[in-house]
Structures are given as C-alpha cells and as structure tokens.
Amino acid sequence: MNYEEAVSYIDNIPKFTTKHPLEHTRMLMERLGNPSTGRKIIHVAGTNGKGSVCSYLDSMLRCGGKSVGLFTSPHLIRINERYIINGQNISDEAFLSAFEKVMEMVRRFVREGGDHPSYFELLFLMGMVIFDEADVEYIVLETGLGGRLDATNVVPHPLACIITSISRDHTEYLGETIPEIAGEKAGIIKPGVPVIYDGHCREASEVIRSRAEELGSPAYELLPSMYRRETVSQEGITFTFDCQGAEPVTLQIPYIADYQMMNASLAYFTMQCLREIHGISEEGLTQGIAKAHWPCRMETVLPGVIIDGAHNEDGIEQFIRTAAHFAREREITILFSAVCDKKYEEMIRKISEGIRPARVVATQIEGSREVPAEELAEDFRKAGCREVYAQADPAQAFEQAYAMKGDGMLFCVGSLYLAGELKDHISKRAKEEKHAQLRGRTEEIQAVSRCGRGGECHLQP
Fewer C-beta neighbours within 10 Å, C or N terminus of the chain? Predict the structure, then answer.
C-alpha cells in the first residue's frame, strides 16, 4: 500500500459515529506497546483556541531546546498536518510507516473479534507511534471532540491539563448547556495533575474548579485581568501578562485578534506552572510566544488579506470584534462560506450587523454538508448587505473578492474547510507567480545572450 492508498483508507472510515469506549482505545494502545509511555505530555481541551494554545506551547518548548511532537486536528490541506515534529509536518514515508504498523495490529485485533478503530482513534494511535519512533521528549496533545470520552484521554499521567474557552458547539455530542459542555471538557483532568483554564465564563469555571477539587488537582484560573493589550497593528499585538506573585512580562504575538492574548496567556501560564520541569529561560518563553504560528486563525496570508477559521457562535463573535476594529479605518470585504450543520444564518446576521462590510462574496464547500453559495448570498442580502455576490468555486471567489478589496481589507471566514481551500489556492497561486517571474527572467537573459552574439535584440538601452 502506498501513501495515497493509506490516506484513502483512512478517509473512508466514518468521521461522525458513536465513539468507542476509552477501554477500546486502551486495549489498542497496549497492543502497540503503549508508545506514549515516558513522554512528557501536555493535554489540551476546550471549544475554541485549542490549536493556538498548542502552537504556543510547541513553540516555547522548541525555543527552549526541547524535542516536541505536536498532535492537532483537523487538518486544513493534507492529513500529515496533524503530526508535527520539531516544527515540521511529518513526511509521507513516516506517515505510511506508522499507518502500516498500526494496521498490522488492527487486522489481528479484528480477526480476534475486536472492533475496527474509529477515524480519530486510528489517527491518534498513529500519532503516538510517530512520536515514539521520533523519540520526542514532549508531546503537546489536542483533544478531538469533547474530552471525557475523547481517544486522547487514555493518556494516564500528563504533566498538565489545559482547558481553553468553552462555548456552545457540537451540542449533539457534548450537551446543550455550558455546564454540560464544561463537564465533558473537564473530563481530561487527572488526579493530582495541575489544570490551567480560561476563567472568563463563570458557569464553566465552576464546573472545572469543582472537578479539580474532587481529584485533588491544583487549579490555576486565567482571568481577563491578568493580561492587558498595549499595542495592536496589522503585524500583531503587544500585551502585558501579570500573574499575582510574579513580575509582569511583556509578550508579543503575531496575530491581530484580542482573543489570542488569552490563548497565549494560557500557554505561557502553563509553562510558568511547569518551570521546574522544563527549566526554560524567560527569554526562551517570550521568544517562543513571538515565533508561534498557527494557520488560519486570524492569519495574514497576503497584505490586507486575513483568513480566520471561525465557524461557531463564540468564534464568530471574536472575529467580529477584531474585524470591527479595523472597519473603523478600512473598507471591509468578506469572503464567506459555511457548512449546513452550523448556524450560518445567525453567523451571517451577526457579521452583517457587527461589521457592516462594504461587500460580500459567498462561496460553497463541496460535500454532503454543502450550502449553496447563492443561498448564503441571499441571507447576506436579507441581513442588509447591499453589494453581495455568489461564486460557487472557492478559488474564483477568492480572486473576485481580492480584486474588489482595493486598499481595504479582505477577511475570509465561516469554515475551516474554506480556510483549507484558500490556503491551498494561495500556495498554488504563489508558486505560479514565482514560476512566471523565473520564466520572465530566463527570457530576459536569453535575449541579452542573443544580443551578445549579434542576434536581434529588442531590449531597450
């Protein structure tokens, strides 16, 4: 089996099915020889910000000279993105090697009457094999969905558990209320293991604090009063982090969204709590925060062009706060798409009222969860936006919106699937432009060469 066949096999495992019990994942891990044993693991759950927090942690650890494996989801373009070793996506060869090792075990397990692992379960097992073979010291581990029943929750003794902001999302799996969802996220807390959590939501905080007390786990609450923005520009934010009992520190992040201060603070706070274990200097931590990169989370991909993967209620509200700040001085163009199981009508209404964009281009993501571009465009018109266009193809929609933005700003938002499509398109676009420049330079050199040989020359003196 080659790499493409392995990816196709995984993609054909249903993604949204009933979870296997954790005992199932534990059995599979044991059959693999418990590859995560001996690794220093930081476990991260939450509704929004998990990936960003993981990225900050990974960057700080690497700036401190540590070897790090980073496991996140979902991927935007290629499945290899879920596995990062020391800042680099794993190779196709490493991916295939781990797949074959895990599948050899799975086939034996199924022949003996066991159930085939789920989509995410298989990817998690592969990750632990990949990091074991790379012999990393640290693993930064992001949950997939929820926490209590998530496959990643078989890790018995992490260094720390982090719970990011909690809001209503995936309610069909995690519960309808904030306390119910917080209870699922707090399921990653382990006895005696410190938990660092976002404390801006009182209902969620009470659940997390109560669970930590039950398990005798030290609990560290990050409050909004602990971080304060100093400056903001299109290049990023400078802010002060001030934890009681420690000297205030100035941190710089390469993002323009205020919520990234909370994500960076959670990661930094965690590293402060673990200082005796990792021993990284203050300079290493601050450099790590400044160098962190997490794609499609208020990411500037071209001058004046920002992609944000916001795709739920809280994410959209955070996006609006950021975009509205720039709308005071710049004309805003929105490129939007969403999938059918999100509350996209509400998302559109909030964007229209909160930002009042000059124009909107709606597009669509193909698949079983597709919402037609024209339907989204009509919802924007109903919400009061006057200049609205529908373009089904995301790449063409981007080019249309990019041409229209002029001296203003273009925000691409509504779906991680859209973010992935656009990142892929922009990457190909950049390669084509580079090739065109090289072709032009080659033709110029050839023309000069012909002139030197006495041939016809059309270059201007």
Answer: C
